Every structure is written in C-alpha cells, then in structure tokens.
Q: What sequence folds into this?
C-alpha cells in the first residue's frame, strides 16, 4: 500500500507542476486552484507513504517521479526539446529509482 501512496504522491506532484505552468504565474484561476489542491495531495500522500517507507528512499523516488513526469509533460504538452544530455540525465534518474526499489 505504501508504494501505491508514493506513486499517487508522485503523480500529484507532476499534476501540480503541470497545472502551475498553465496557471501562468497564478493569474489563471482554475489552473491555480488545481496547483494548490494537487500540491497538498502530493504532501498528504507522501506523508502517508513515509509511515512505512524509509525517508531517503521515499523522497528520492518521489522527486524522481516528479522529474521524469514533468520532463515528459514538458516535451509532450509544452513542446520543450529533449536533448541528449536531458535524456541521459533522466535515464540516470530512472536507474537510481530502480536501484533504490530493488536494493532498498
């Protein structure tokens, strides 16, 4: 269950970050509200997951999911470029997350 909560925390983080981009500096109401709601949900899910998971592992996975998810949002929704160095860095993050899950 704690891993599901951690995945929900990561998904919530990606959602609030994407909504913040749409909020345009908190000048648009709906995306601003979505940002705040999912920001809080992300913290709530992370806190619940931390009841059973080690802090270092959970935080690394949570932030890694956020990095991976927001990178993909940037590429597919906001037409940001995906350069070779960015790809290499994301692959290293995914490798680190996989290592923490397997070894942690």
A:
């Amino acid at each position: 269950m704690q891993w599901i909560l951690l995945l929900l925390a990561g998904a919530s983080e990606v959602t609030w970050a994407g909504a913040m981009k749409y909020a345009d500096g908190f000048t648009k109401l709906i995306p601003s509200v979505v940002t705040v709601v999912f920001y809080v949900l992300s913290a709530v899910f992370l806190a619940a997951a931390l009841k059973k998971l080690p802090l270092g592992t959970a935080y690394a996975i949570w932030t890694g999911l956020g990095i991976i998810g927001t990178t993909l949002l940037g590429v597919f929704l906001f037409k940001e470029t995906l350069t070779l160095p960015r790809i290499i860095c994301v692959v290293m993050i995914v490798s680190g997350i996989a290592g923490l899950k397997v070894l942690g």
In short: The helical segments are 2-23, 29-49, 55-76, 84-103. The chain is about 80% helix and 0% strand. The mean pLDDT is 93.
